[in-house]
Amino acid sequence: VTAHRNMNLLALGLSVLFLLGYVVYHFTTPETIYGDANFNGVLEEAERIAVAGTRPWYLALLASHVVLAAVILPFILYTFIKAITEQFAAHKRLARWVWPLWFYVALTGPICYLMLRPYYG
To answer: Is the N end or the C end of the chain the one with fewer CB atoms within 10 Å?
Structure first.
């Protein structure tokens, strides 16, 4: 139980740090466009054709990641509150579906980053 609590506190703390850094980064840097190989901020026709097979997959993955990340956040906090207030039955019931969704968000974020990485100028 102690290790479980400590690992979850670490995960939540690192998630908060990441989210703060992510928000600051995206407020202070220009948008990166998937497929913009010449880094001019415009997806030109030749670039669009070059990524036609992967761009829809990237956008679908990104959309699911962003929407689910926004939706799951309050549930993560609620699940955490249930644990720290020692309402373990409710915590366990919530965590059964919150954790897999959080894990999906945690996996799809780096995948989206790695897919977009070649287009950072």
So the answer is: N
Give me the residue label for tokens 């959309």. Answer: 63
Residue pair 32/116 in contact by the 8 Å Cβ criterion: yes
Those residues with Cβ within 8 angstroms of residue 120's Cβ, 6 or more apart along the chain or in another chain:
32
Query: In this structure, what DSSP letter does residue 86 have?
Result: T
Buried b (16+ CB within 10 A) or exposed e, 83-101: beeeeeeebeebbeebeee
Q: Cα 95 to chain center, whole Å?
A: 18
**CB-based burial label for 38 (10 Å; 0-12, 13-18, 19+):** exposed
The domain ranges of the chain are 2-119
Q: Does the pLDDT value for residue 121 go beyond 90? A: no
Q: pLDDT tens across 4-47, in order?
A: 999 999 999 999 999 999 999 999 999 999 999 999 999 999 99
Q: How confident is the model at residue 96, as a pLDDT?
A: 97
